[in-house]
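Both lines are quoted verbatim for reference:

——
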Amino acid sequence: MYTGIDQSNSIYPSENISAVVDNDDWTANMTNVTVEELSDPKIGDKSRAWRMRAKTQASFTVYRIDFVKYDYYTTFLISGTTGVDYELLKELAQKVADKVV
């Protein structure tokens, strides 16, 4: 049993930043995973969220939140078999968004 949290940050030109969050190419090769888009967590200027579950191991769950604020793009993931808390992930993402100036 484990839980892990990952964060990835990037800077993009302002004119292209919305396209980054709207891109769904990362789901293309996920054949053993069920991907469900969740409601907008309303973080930063634009955000999206997903829940992913392994088809072969129902107890393994991943939540993902992507958001942009100005030219700053962040992806947060929380994954594991226990203690996978979407509300914690939203809280962490919001704290980062609040610090982007």
